[in-house]
TrEMBL record:
Keywords: Signal. The lineage of its organism: Bacteria, Pseudomonadati, Pseudomonadota, Gammaproteobacteria, Cellvibrionales. SMART domains: VWA. Residues 1-24 form the signal peptide. InterPro entries: CLCR, Uncharacterised_YfbK_N, VWF_A, vWFA_dom_sf, YfbK_C. This is DUF3520 domain-containing protein. It comes from the Bacteria. It comes from Zhongshania marina. Gene3D superfamilies: von Willebrand factor, type A domain. It holds the Pfam family YfbK_C. Residues 226-404 form the VWFA domain.
Length: 587
């Protein structure tokens, strides 16, 4: 009996070892399949690794492997051909993502209390789909630099949960990080670059990156700020991860403001009230005392608070400074004007005064993320999520200038794809910022703002010409239109923006001419953005995740971080490693 047991155990170990060796050898990250595509008729889609003759993933990254539980088909003994295996492996990854549809609905706050997540509210999101260049050659959207989704996802992971899929917004995940894009040098406050490589989650597709870099200075960044704090002090904020964290965060902000800056404090709980009239930062003792006296209790009259905050902001308005209302709340409005539509209309009217509204979301269990997004987009501001003192230091310390001052407002992008190079395209993220083509030059159409020094990424997944079915289109009036005469042109990018204190749009353009390459030969910026995007596809249960894997995410993220040694990137790697066992356990 003992010998039979030993023999059976050895046999099982041999089978398991053979399976994992086969899995690793066949993974597109390590195989040449990621560099092999169908023949292309347009040279920009042919892989160009000539400048990287020995392209290899960074050694320490390539040694990492995340084992995903095999499907029952693997145990049947019939592994099938490689052609059959790829769809099967893609199905496994899709199943892994689908299993995240039922995340843990319980978590713990910083005090160790068990908190249900089922009252957290996130807007339903319909992913951007692939569009045919033959039908829709123009893609138009507004840029944004919100980072709320990343911090919120981090909070959920750190509290032991798998992130709620609808809490993941790909563009906010990607744009949490800094990128090494060229600074503006031609008189515009923005500069544009691009890169182009194989899509890591689908070797037959490409990934195009548009990178925008804002100037490090604006006309207003040296002229001070007029800030009105609008603080939620209702009963729902009576938690260690809400009002106490908020008070410490604004104390951090005050310690980094300039002597010429000025602040006021408005609170709301049942009714709105002025806690501190506009006060110079030089009188810091008065401001700190007002913050220290705050307590939480009562219901949430958010609408009245917003109205009062704008009234106060207009009283201390300075046309030569940044005028900003910062609303800090869990978003649980329940008294007076509280509907998303009513609040949006109110804020859209108020922003005409030149006062921007930015949002600081916080809390666990009843966080109203959908409302936060509506308010930030309507108020010409940005949305952040505050989950820790270190995040407060990032927003109000090391990145304070970016948080307070904008380099350009109403920034819009319009991309015209070359049909000779692109059959179909899909914008990754920015679902709430997609615009009609005719809105691009309509200066009455609101769009996103870019802070001083910010770098912003937009990603497109591309199906090259010659791949896939051609749409069956019959036209009476035929038109032939390309993005340009150059053979190497992929797309033509137009950028339109307004100066922070202007009303007239200014426009410039950039031609995307970078030849396709393997993802390992791409710039570190594209490698990093693709890793964060790939994780976002998995966490959000994207139907376009293809063969996305945690292994691919970690490989590229670790490789880039080994070169840059960036604190935020190191944190990202640690989060993915912490998250991995939970996802594998769910499978």
């Amino acid at each position: 009996m003992t010998m039979r047991y030993i023999f059976t155990l050895c046999l099982l170990l041999l089978v398991a070892g053979a399976f994992f060796a086969f899995q690793a050898a066949d993974d597109p990250v390590f195989s040449d399949s990621a560099k092999t595509t169908s023949p292309q008729t347009h040279s920009i889609n042919e892989l160009d690794d000539s400048q990287h003759p020995t392209v290899v993933y960074q050694e320490q990254a390539a040694q990492q492997f995340i084992a995903v539980k095999p499907s029952p088909a693997h145990h049947a003994g019939n592994m099938g051909s490689k052609a059959e295996l790829e769809p099967r492996r893609a199905h496994e990854y899709s199943k892994l993502a689908a299993d995240m549809a039922s995340p843990m609905l319980m978590t713990r706050n910083p005090m160790g209390e068990v908190i249900p997540l089922d009252r957290e509210n996130y807007a339903a999101k319909n992913e951007n789909r692939f569009l045919s260049v033959a039908i829709s050659p123009l893609s138009t959207f507004g840029l944004e630099v919100d980072s709320a989704s990343y911090s919120n996802v981090r909070r959920q992971i750190n509290q032991g949960s798998v992130p709620i899929p609808s809490s993941v917004r790909l563009e906010e995940m990607v744009n949490y990080f800094d990128y090494n894009f060229p600074a503006p040098s031609d008189g515009h406050p923005l500069a544009v670059m691009s890169d182009y490589a194989v899509a890591p989650w689908n070797p037959n597709h490409r990934l195009a990156m548009i990178g925008v870099k804002a100037t490090d200075q604006s006309a207003m960044s040296d002229k001070g700020a007029r800030i009105t704090f609008l603080l939620d002090t209702s009963g729902s904020m009576n938690s260690a991860d809400k009002l106490p964290l908020l008070i410490r965060s604004f104390q951090t902000l005050l310690s980094n403001l300039k002597p010429q800056d000025q602040v006021a404090i408005v609170t709301y709980a049942g009714s709105a009230g002025l806690v501190l009239a506009p006060t110079p930062v030089t009188e810091s003792h008065r401001i700190h005392q007002a913050l220290a006296n705050l307590t939480a209790g009562g219901f949430t009259a958010g609408g009245a608070g917003i109205q009062l905050a704008y009234d106060v902001a207009r009283k201390q308005y300075d046309e030569n400074a940044t005028n900003l209302v910062i609303l800090a709340t869990d978003g649980d409005f329940n008294v007076g004007v509280s509907g998303d539509g009513e609040l949006k209309s109110m804020i859209e009217k108020q922003r005409e005064s030149g006062v921007f509204l930015s949002i600081i979301g916080m809390g666990t269990g009843n966080y109203q993320d959908a409302k936060m997004q509506v308010l930030a987009e309507a108020g010409n501001g940005v949305a952040h999520y505050l989950d820790s003192d270190s995040e407060a230091q990032r927003l109000f310390g090391s990145e304070l200038t970016r948080t307070l001052h904008i380099a350009a407002k109403d920034v819009k992008i319009q991309v015209e794809f070359n049909p000779a190079a692109v059959a179909q395209y899909r914008l990754l993220g920015y679902e709430s910022r997609v615009m009609n083509a005719e809105d691009f030059r309509d200066d009455k159409k609101d769009s996103g703002e870019i802070g001083v020094g910010h770098s912003v990424v937009a990603l497109y997944e591309i199906i090259p010409s010659g791949i896939g079915a051609t749409p069956d289109i019959e036209r009476r009036y035929q038109t032939t239109r390309t993005a340009g005469s150059e053979e190497m042109e992929l797309a033509y990018v137009k950028v339109r923006y307004k100066q922070p204190d202007g009303d007239k749009g200014v426009e410039f353009a950039h031609a995307m001419t970078t030849k396709a390459k393997s993802i390992a030969a791409a710039t570190p910026d594209l490698q990093w953005a693709s890793a964060v995007a790939e994780l976002s596809l998995l966490l959000s249960k994207s139907e376009h995740a293809g063969s996305a894997s945690l292994h691919g995410v970690l490989s590229r993220a670790k490789g880039v971080n080994a070169k840059l040694n960036d604190a935020k990137r190191t944190e990202f790697v640690n989060l993915v490693e912490r998250l991995t066992p939970r996802l594998v356990a769910q499978d």
